[in-house]
Q: What sequence folds into this?
């Protein structure tokens, strides 16, 4: 097993000074899986002050990132490496962090406090892999298993519930039965966890290869963190276009979407408004009129609770609001959409609708999907050709209209009028054509 030269050097420096030191956790797991290393964490028997002293003696930059928890960060060639003293966690009172930590000398105590067996392995070149809880076997068998008492692990830190689901989704591993049972027994403790931390795990879960199965198997957990989705769980869609209930449709749409976190989040929430607008006609056919704008409003509440960035909030809610607006594929005018919501949003909107369609009755979707794919190609051609779809693309500007006697808001209104004529190919985007049009009025 190989870890980076920098990590090896740090481990050797600590070992040569008489202390135990290992790479630990996710980096060991990923190395065994043959995945590229990301962050490499190091654990050691040396106290943080001693770690600092050894690093400084070797002219290695030190950042004091968490001395009270035993963590010092070494920076080598611009890369940070967290070095944490072996520790035993004190009492957990908030289902998230220990009230205190005690430094210990035995790596076994340190590994025993970790979340899952696959994350509770350590490694150094001299000893090889230190695997005290069967992590290697669980890795080989593709199992997520809590270290020790699963119920206790989740009561200590309820965010581990979301981490278990995330690992299951991204690694395509099953969650071991006792660990699974403990997840359902403790899922309401997620109410005590910072919503931003939950959202970070949810985002990683959604782009996993196994996301659909996890969203299905653990939908009750998803209902804890997004209670607005609960009405979708059993909402029937008796409609020729659908073969799943609303939640079944949602998770199949997530699975069909590109592995883009914003688009997959959009698919998770895109039909969240359906249960509240459902009607059934005299023939027993279900309808969901206006579910897109209603869903966009519900999504706003969800996203505000997660404290997402303005970028995520604006894009997801816009895509949900407009996702039914591209339902009639024969009436879609690409440049109109580009003018309305811009290049990035339009491209994503078409991808959202394609993903949505793939979760419909497969007998109904062929033409629409192919048409939308063709429209995506048309969009790329419009961009590549530099065709006009926003005011700044026009061959005239506000000063030109000012010179013709237009004033105040008249200028903006007239520029918008010209843009729509250009977008609809009723006017050439040349200065001569536009000025002739203006002078003829």
A:
């Amino acid at each position: 097993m190989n870890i980076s030269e920098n990590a090896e050097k740090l481990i050797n420096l600590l070992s040569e000074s008489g202390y135990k030191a290992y790479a630990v956790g996710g980096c060991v797991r990923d190395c065994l899986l043959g995945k590229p290393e990301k962050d490499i964490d190091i654990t050691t028997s040396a106290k943080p002050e001693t770690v600092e002293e050894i690093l400084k003696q070797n002219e290695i930059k030190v950042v004091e990132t968490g001395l009270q928890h035993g963590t010092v960060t070494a920076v080598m060639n611009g890369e940070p490496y967290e070095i944490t003293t072996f520790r035993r966690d004190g009492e957990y009172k908030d289902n998230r962090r220990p009230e205190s930590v005690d430094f210990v000398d035995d790596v076994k105590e340190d590994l025993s406090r970790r979340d899952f067996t696959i994350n509770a392995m350590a490694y150094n070149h001299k000893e090889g892999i230190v695997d005290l809880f069967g992590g290697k076997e669980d890795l080989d068998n593709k199992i997520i298993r809590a270290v020790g008492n699963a119920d206790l692990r989740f009561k200590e830190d309820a965010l581990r519930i979301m981490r278990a689901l995330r690992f299951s989704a991204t690694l395509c591993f099953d969650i071991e039965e006792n660990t699974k049972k403990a997840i359902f027994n403790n899922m309401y403790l997620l109410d005590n966890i910072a919503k931003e931390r939950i959202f970070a795990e949810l985002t990683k879960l959604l782009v996993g290869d196994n996301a659909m199965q996890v969203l299905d198997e653990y939908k009750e957990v998803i209902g804890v963190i997004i209670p607005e989705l609960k009405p979708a769980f059993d909402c029937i869609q008796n409609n020729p276009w659908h073969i799943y209930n609303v939640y079944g449709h949602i998770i199949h749409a997530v699975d069909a979407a590109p592995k883009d976190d914003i688009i997959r989040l959009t698919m998770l929430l895109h039909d969240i408004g359906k249960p509240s607008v459902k009607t059934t006609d005299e023939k027993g056919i279900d309808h969901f009129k206006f579910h897109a704008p209603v869903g966009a409003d519900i999504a706003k509440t969800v996203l505000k609770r997660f404290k997402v960035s303005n970028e995520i909030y604006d894009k997801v809610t816009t895509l949900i609001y407009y996702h039914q607006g591209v339902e009639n594929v024969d009436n879609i005018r690409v440049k109109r959409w580009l003018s309305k919501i811009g290049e990035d949003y339009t491209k994503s909107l078409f991808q959202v609708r394609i993903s949505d369609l793939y979760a419909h009755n497969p007998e109904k979707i062929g033409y629409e999907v192919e048409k939308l794919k063709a429209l995506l190609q048309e969009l790329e051609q419009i961009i590549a050709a530099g065709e006009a779809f926003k005011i700044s693309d026009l061959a005239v500007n506000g000063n030109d209209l000012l010179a013709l006697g237009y004033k105040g808001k008249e200028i903006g209104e007239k520029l918008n009028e010209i843009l729509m004529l250009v977008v609809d190919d009723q006017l050439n985007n040349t200065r001569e054509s536009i000025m002739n049009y203006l002078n003829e009025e």
Notes: The chain is about 50% helix and 10% strand. The first strand starts at residue 21 and ends at 24. The two ends are 77 Å apart (CA to CA). The chain has a mean pLDDT of 93.
